[in-house]
């Protein structure tokens, strides 16, 4: 079982390296895939805890635990304002949402379960969308 985890980690590292080595044409295509991935994430039934920034008035201790807040609305703003120059920075910000979720929420809480489901969906979308780009470059 651990061998599979190691293999998957290597795949993720290779995948991230490939995202950084794209030419301009593939980069443009990859960034449009980021738009599509974000659109699908925001529509997912498990997205509800992550759609907007956490409000300290609603969750007063959140920022004591989470030092790098991130949410899908902020990712959308960053994507629209061309803050992301390549897909890896987009992916890292989306992953930050799930890291924060794990930091703050118990795994079996509603938000914790939503985070796990959305993270799994995100990984699936990235593999589907970006693997096809890799194949088209070979």
Along the chain, the helix and strand elements come as: HHHHHH
Instruction: Please tally the helical runs, counting DSSP H or I stretches of 4 or more residues.
Output: 6
Poorly predicted runs are none
The overall strand count is: 0
Overall, the morphology is globular
- Euclidean distance between termini CA atoms: 31 Å
Structural class: mainly alpha
Can you summarize the main beta sheet? none
How does the SSE layout of this entry go?
Blueprint: H1 2-20, H2 24-43, H3 62-65, H4 72-80, H5 87-104, H6 110-137
Describe this structure in words.
The chain has six helices and no strands. By secondary structure, the protein is an all-alpha fold. Helix 2 packs antiparallel against helix 6, helix 4 packs antiparallel against helix 5 (87-104) and helix 5 (87-104) runs antiparallel to helix 6. The radius of gyration is 16 Å and the shape is globular.
What keywords describe this structure?
mainly alpha
Q: Nutshell version of this structure?
A:
By secondary structure, the chain is mostly helical.
